[in-house]
Amino acid sequence: PAEIVDGRKREEHAMKLNEYPRIPLAFLPTPLEFLPALTKHLDGPKIWMKRDDMTGLATGGNKARKLEFLLGDAIENKADTVVTFGAVQSNHCRMTAAAACKCGLKAFLILSGDKGETLTGNLLFDEIMGCEYMFLPDFTQESNRDSMQLAIFQKIQELNENGRNVYMIPPGGSTPLGDLGYYIAAIELFDQAREVGMRIDHIFVAMGSSGTQAGILAGVKCLDMPSAVQGVAVSKPGSLDGLGLPPIEQIVNQIGELIDQKPNATADDVIVHYDYYGEAYGKPTRECIEAIKLLARLEGIFLDPVYTGKAMAGMLDLIGKGRFRKDENVVFIHTGGYPGIFPHGESFRVNT
Question: Among this protein's residues, is 90 annotated catalytic?
């Protein structure tokens, strides 16, 4: 029977995954929540939300799933210092720092952009956790990329020369090893959908460093599910080229290699909507702000202005254009990022 075959496949997957050291950092499984008020408001497909904002670590967010594998590997390699890179208000940096604290390691953050005059949002959390950090110019500007990469290399070299054993985590924790966390999230999601008798037609996720989308797509392909994984880009095409991130389909196939699976992903499997990032990464659009307010007022759920707000704005626009049938089920992956709201407080100062 198909159930027995599926069960054997899952056991094989679990055995292979157990070969990789993993530190428990997240509260799993995260809830899968139906959004009745938003569904009614849109008069469109049924809207569900996978609440990965509720993973628990340092206010929660999607990076906890990736960091379980990455910190496991760091400890396996006897690291005492974790180094990572991101924007000044990086959710990934905040959660990496928290994971390092929890594991008894030091965190050194290389932050790109203007630190501002006051500590707020993620940067405030970084400070409270006692992080070491340095600031570099905006990485989204192509003219800064060579100097940025040199500075990162020099800092890691300096730390090593000073007797630190450094484990480097790339932006977003987007490595095939880290992205195994979202391969597992996909299995978790489909198990939850099966429990409530729900077919998942579309999965929406914010696309930044692409690891979350790649992990989910790897799960969809390896489990042979018909769901379309819809990424909504939060920055313009090519803005992350200097970070050395491969195409999403390549990451998907690399994830498959780690677990002895063959997703055989191609560029045709990758859906990314580039119409909603606005002016630049980290700069919320008017539609993003409106999407945040809409969800808060209808469902009591907060999004962030860098990732999930833009992704929700994109999903709402596509629904408004009639891209989905009313009988379809759409799952939105809430990747967290609450601290990112606070530096953008003025954007919400509208009495509506």
Answer: yes
